[in-house]
Specification:
Strand content: over 45%
Number of helices: 0
Number of strands: 10
Shape: globular
Order of helices and strands: EEEEEEEEEE
Radius of gyration: 13 Å
């Protein structure tokens, strides 16, 4: 058993986005995305994985295959990996998303912290 505090992974992005990996194994990748106000996560897919996206703090517009969905705190969205997605921070403060991807993506780039 492991216990995590999401507050340890909530950071103010130095640029547009700060990704902090919480946990990963061959079955699951879990991380927080901290997106600065007015910034966006560009369009991308997640191969054959399932993505769960939960708004921890802030407001977002999530765009999936041309359809836009407004999301607020405590809301959760499931996205199939083959669907093209992007996320816009529509609030005045940092948007914090809790993300899980299962199974673990095939690209090593997804498994590490990143500052964009």
């Amino acid at each position: 058993m492991q216990k995590f505090s999401l507050k340890d992974y909530m950071v103010e992005p130095e640029g547009k986005i700060a990704k902090r990996v919480i946990y990963n194994d061959k079955n699951t990748l879990a991380f927080l995305l901290n997106i600065a106000s007015g910034q966006s996560l560009p369009k991308h897919t997640h191969f054959d994985c399932t993505v769960l996206l939960q708004v921890i703090k802030g407001e977002a517009m999530v765009n999936v295959d041309g359809e836009s969905v407004s999301m607020n705190e405590s809301e959760l969205l499931q996205i199939d990996g083959s669907e093209e997605m992007s996320v816009d921070n529509t609030g005045q403060n940092v948007l914090t998303l809790y993300v899980t991807i299962s199974p673990q993506p095939p690209s090593e780039n997804y498994l590490v912290d990143a500052d964009l």
